[in-house]
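[audit] Reproducing an earlier prediction to check determinism. Same input, same settings, fresh worker. If the tokens differ from the archived copy the diff job will pick it up downstream; this log only records the rerun itself.
[audit] input (353 residues):
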Amino acid sequence: MKKKKIYLIDRLLTFYSLFSGRKKAHALQSLNPATVVIYSTTALGDFLMNTPAICSLKKRFPASKFILVSSKKNSDLVSRYPWFDNIYLWDNKLLNFLPLFFRLRRHKPELSVILHAHFPYDIMSSVLTGSQTILRDHYGSESPLLNKHLDHYSGYFDDHTIKRKLKLIEALGAETYQTRMHLPDTEAGAAPATHHRRIGFQLGASKEIRRWPLASFSQLAITLLDRWPDSEIIITGTAAEQPLEQAFLDSLPPHYRKNVTPMAGKTRLSGLISLIRSLDLLVTGDTGPLHIAVAAQVPTVSLFSTANPRYTGPCQDSERHIVIHRPGKQASQHPMASINAEEVAGAVAKLVG
């Protein structure tokens, strides 16, 4: 069914290009677009890793109008950036494409840059909304049938996600050396004026296989609180992770629970940024709060197994971050179970001890 869908979209775009007179751009470095559309409609971490490329494009085209197509779940974050003249939210579904179509058509975009979105509707959207030049970051798993509708797309690139986005826009003459992620201004962190350590635990992750086992988090908490009895453990996360937070609290002996502050789901996304900024360190898997902490220059101990930190780990301030990567080898256990709490506690002590 998916192949048939891609074929039908290809036929639609071919007929559209034929009758609209759309032609491929050749001199990409000489472009001077009046309107630039950025597509970043996936996860929080994806958007943050796109910010160096977006910032570079803003410098490359300082007089251009910038429009962001993003997701509803990231709206509280993206709306706080001063970069965008318009922001449109889209769930990447064909059913909800028409409102986006009419809004973008009014702007007559000259350049569309697809950094993170869902194939094939992202390409369809860029072509049908009238974009004259389209760039897209490919990951190699999509059908090449629609490549003919793109003016430039990424090839094989074995390095960090941030760098591959910068490599994509290099074709436009944009700078590619600055890999630092950017956060918008938010309200000041709500950390009290104390001298104890504030250590964040991000219990959840986008996929269960990327989540460190709850028992390991419990053992880590006990180890840290035995070492620093006045320290505070702050649980970060979304409302969907509150059951996980409660299970963590229930797993601790009662006298340790007074040192734990449950904050999962108690802030909006902008409030989560402020909360993470107030921490001394965050222990986390490969998920959005990791990238918030890295961008905020908050030290992290990040845990990887099925994901590869070469592509999605910290890409700045290496002295602030310790990455523990243990690819799971035993099919009978959770992939992240090979990371032990003692090792993580040692990494925490090294950074905030």
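[audit] rerun output stored. Observation attached for the diff report: Residues 2-20 form the longest helix (19 residues).
[audit] end
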